[in-house]
Amino acid sequence: MSSASRDQLHAIASQCSKFRNVYRGGLQSATFPSQVTCEHCGHFTEDHRCELDLIDEILVNMDQT
């Protein structure tokens, strides 16, 4: 897995069909819709990885467009 920057994590989340916005503590975030980032996704692990392994795939697809 590549190490994505904070800006990339925002871009990736906005392109990800599996993005599931959650607020810290596991509550769904209706109050922070602008916080679309992998860091706020339910599939993003504590060790900063996507449990669905989609970060690199989405980055590659973004580079091709």
Automatic annotation (TrEMBL):
UniProt-recorded name of the protein: Uncharacterized protein
Organism field: Geosporobacter subterraneus DSM 17957
UniProt superkingdom: Bacteria
